[in-house]
Task: inverse folding
């Protein structure tokens, strides 16, 4: 059964871009680990703060793009 062409409801942006945003969140999450490790080993606060920012973004993106 084909979809009715008159039911053209706009797709929310969170659903439309969910896969690329979730892939970006996954990448940011895993990129945060080596950055946090290097920041801890080198005692570099900038790297540690960058890792926290990546972790935060990786946690917020799924909340915004939920189904």
Result:
């Amino acid at each position: 059964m084909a979809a009715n062409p008159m039911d053209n409801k706009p797709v929310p942006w969170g659903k439309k871009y969910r896969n690329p945003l979730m892939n970006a969140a996954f990448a940011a999450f895993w990129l945060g680990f080596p950055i946090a490790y290097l920041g801890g080993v080198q005692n570099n606060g900038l790297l540690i703060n960058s890792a926290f920012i990546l972790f935060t973004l990786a946690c917020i993106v799924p909340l915004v793009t939920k189904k």
Notes: The chain has a mean pLDDT of 88.
